[in-house]
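Predict the holo structure. Ligand: S-adenosylmethionine.
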Amino acid sequence: MFRASVALGARRLSNGYLFACPRAAGARARRRYRPSGATCRLDVECRPSSYDEELREKTAHARAHFDGVATLPSRTETFESAREEFRMRAEFKVWHDGDRSYFAMCDSDRPKDPVEVVDFPMASARIRELMPELLREVTATETLRRKLFQANFLTTTTGDAVVSLLYHRQLDEDWEREAEAMRARLGIDVIGRARKQKLVLAKDFVTEKVLIDGKEFSYKQLEGSFTQPNAGIAAQMLAWARSAAVSDSPDVVAAATPRDANRDFLELYCGNGHFTIALAPLFRKCLATEISKSSVAAAHVNMAANGIDNVVTARLSAEELCDALDGGREYTRLKDIDLTTYDLSTVLVDPPRAGMGDEVSKFCARFDRIIYISCNPETLARDCKILGETHEIKRFAVFDQFPYTPHLESGALLVKRA
Ligand SMILES: C[S@@+](CC[C@H](N)C(=O)[O-])C[C@H]1O[C@@H](n2cnc3c(N)ncnc32)[C@H](O)[C@@H]1O
């Protein structure tokens, strides 16, 4: 447990963190680090000096979930984050106080009690640059400011940016004109959202470029859909997954030689094709599924943009795909796909925090290699208990996607026992 400095004006939030309101104390916000249990909502303080210690503690905590549940390899492959400017997306409340507007975060238990965010060193350089510029624009133009309650930033390492502005009122032509002028001045795309309204000026996505094993891939990332928040870590996760697809050894970094070039790859929870695009070249054919319609659409665009032509993507829940592959009911969304032509040897899963659960875990146990990416070590360990009956965990990695929070992304390679 870390010592937390308590600044003047600090208050304890319901998640256990201590914060100082910068307006009251003129200080940076502070919190107490509490690795277990609490969900972290207000991650305001950047603490590079305690980064190493926090990551060590989070890693030990993640590994502890496996005690008595499944056997991990002794070595943890550790992927560290940049200490600052690592978050490509951020959401802030916008608070108005007389003539002044400011960015704020609120604890879920005290939604009317804002903590002002003056700067956010964890956010990408582009977000940090845009924050004061956006506030200046909004403060200067009543049409943009009136009933604005939230601003969401989505950026890339290449400087692309979409800012969504959320309002408690319907948006009209005046708003559109002013937003268009601001869009041109700031060099961003703007989305105006209100009840049953979404105005897009001029696009609702960014395009990220990622270099993996010497090759550049491009990713269309939709505003409002899932994207990996930490771009540096996301690239390291892709390289790790490629390496895990071909080798049981952590020492093989580049996936130069496809292991299963004559066999096929299945991906569940594929999102916008983030892992699919990087792993597809290692296999003969790939089947990737995902529940979100907009993410599947983005995945199609991303396959085409990267010249990936051996992937079929279908909008199906993981549970539906398990059912279909086991000869269950017929799915219209699979009518053009002949599942019998696939010789699936490797599966990659990247489920939400709830993990795969019993049904999907038992289904995955039939594959030779399982690459399991997880944002919740607790559910990863639970699912590994099932998979551990047939598979050995050959590799275990932690990716520090969320520095200065209790959260830790992890990856496990499970290989079927002979
Ligand atoms: C952690 S995200 C990973 C997305 C993708 N692998 C990536 O790296 O961007 C989890 C994804 O699972 C999808 N999802 C949630 N529940 C699902 C289910 N039951 N079946 C299939 N996909 C699901 C979400 O829409 C989301 O895109």
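Residues 226, 228, 269-272, 274-275, 290-292, 295, 317-319, 350-352, 375 surround S-adenosylmethionine (CB under 6 Å). The first strand starts at residue 10 and ends at 12.
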